Amino acid sequence: MSNIATTKRTRNSASFADVIVFIVSFALFVFGLYLFGAGFFGAAGTEFWLFWAGLLASCFAFLIPIVYHWVVDRKA
Description:
72% of the residues lie in helices and 0% in strands. It contains 2 helices and no strands. The radius of gyration is 17 Å and the shape is elongated. Keywords: Membrane, Transmembrane, Transmembrane helix.
């Protein structure tokens, strides 16, 4: 077995910034899902771009909290 040591967080409650990051990320994810659907029923010629915009928006929705916590935990 490997012995992986990670840093422990000093507090177990969410800060105001954690809540804001969650709300922004969730809104971006839901908007990405909307764009996925719009890609199937969009105007002719825009289906491809709407679908990929939804894919990118959903990816960024997951990337935002990852980068945020990487920056915050690096300062600690």
